[in-house]
Write a structure and sequence with these properties.
3 strands; 63% helix; Serine Threonine Protein Phosphatase 5, Tetratricopeptide repeat; 12 helices; three-stranded antiparallel beta sheet; globular; SPATA16; spermatogenesis
């Protein structure tokens, strides 16, 4: 089919990069279909990611990725892929409302499945049209407390960006109906951890007791489990109704690349490959989801280049971009800890001086 249309033959040495990518993407999608029919979604996953890297604007590539995630019971990621598929369908001129409706129903089903299976947290979406105010957030939290009394150990409201739902989204109307996402946790530490992570300017995960020393194998395993079981699942759910991709904290992209580095240290090559391929697919899609600055474009290119080098097994002394960012994050954490320690010590000294002064005055009066 491709040869008859001239995409693969004709003048192969003069073929455009777009034509070559289209052919390669087509082959990857067929491999995804084959593995799914063989009921081997784990083998289909990397091919689904690669098809998006090669042709991120084709909505069916994202829909196939959603199908693979669903077969692997990764419903939050399936929901995000379906959301992007629907957006890409509209962005590239798709006008058949029946197709868009079916994609939205799939997206909605994945969100509902993700919510149903979540055990450590519960969620609430609140329609939003005006500017976010502190009193509005407090009111939302009061409603959440009454509605979900079992998940009030820590209540987190996502202020990184407003959310959209398949039931009300209309890409042709700007902006679409937006929602405020509130998460309630059974475990207070999970909520605090997410709050801390989302407040970072740099998208990085740091939990080092000794920030400037190399990780031991035990620390690496502990960090990997924290990332894989606590951080990434929460971020994946948050992003299942948040279209715009970015590089800030909680964006999920940088965190995945840092997670891949932990997998590499433990020599878990297959999992590392899947994580990096997924991150590359997300990076390739970002320019279609939002306008990016020149600085962000340069960062995106650097991340893609380093990710490709990692997959190809190229070893050099150059730091990977995501590891460099993580090091900067560790330094920031260390400085914040020093500042907090200094302020606490200063406060204690001031209190002691005032107490001593008060005792002297009382002694003099006596």
């Amino acid at each position: 089919k491709l040869c008859s249309k001239g995409a693969a033959l004709g003048k192969p040495f003069e073929a455009s990069a777009e034509d070559i990518a289209s052919v390669a993407s087509f082959i990857e999608t067929k491999l995804v279909t084959c593995y799914l029919r063989m009921r081997k979604p784990d083998l289909a996953l990397n091919h689904a990611h690669r098809s998006i890297v090669l042709n991120p604007a084709y909505f069916r590539n994202h829909l196939r990725q959603a199908t693979v995630f669903r077969c692997l019971e990764r419903y939050s990621e399936a929901a995000r892929s379906a959301m992007i598929a629907d957006y890409m369908f509209w962005l590239c001129g798709g006008s058949e409302q029946c197709i868009s409706k079916l994609i939205k129903l799939y997206w909605q089903a994945m969100i509902e499945e993700a919510i149903t299976r979540a055990e450590s947290f519960s969620v609430m979406y609140t329609p939003f049209a005006t500017k976010i105010r502190a009193d509005k957030i407090e009111k939302v939290r009061e409603v959440f407390t009454k509605t979900h009394p079992a998940y009030v150990e820590y209540i987190y409201t996502d202020l990184q960006g407003l959310h959209i739902l398949p039931q009300t989204v209309d890409w042709s109307s700007f902006p679409p109906q937006q929602y405020l996402l509130t998460l309630g946790f059974k475990n207070k530490e999970d909520g605090k951890f997410l709050e801390k992570l989302s407040s970072r300017k740099l998208p990085t995960f740091t939990e080092h007791k000794t920030p400037f020393s190399l990780l031991t194998k035990e620390d690496t395993v502990r960090h990997m489990e924290t990332m894989g079981k606590r951080i990434l699942p929460m971020l994946d759910f948050i992003r299942s109704t948040q279209l715009n991709g970015s590089f800030h904290g909680c964006s999920g992209v940088m965190e995945k690349l840092q997670y891949a580095s932990l997998l590499s240290r433990l020599q878990r090559v297959k999992e590392q490959s899947q994580v990096i391929n997924q991150a590359m697919a997300e990076l390739a899609t970002i320019p279609y989801l939002q306008d990016i600055s020149q600085q962000e474009a340069e960062l995106l290119q650097s991340l893609m280049a380093d990710a490709m080098d990692t997959l190809e097994g190229k070893r050099n002394d150059k730091e990977r971009v995501w590891n460099t960012i993580q090091k900067v994050g560790r330094i920031e954490d260390f400085l914040y800890q020093l500042e907090d320690s200094f302020l606490k010590t200063k406060k204690l000294r001031t209190a002691r001086r005032q107490k001593t002064k008060l005792k002297r005055l009382q002694t003099m009066q006596q």
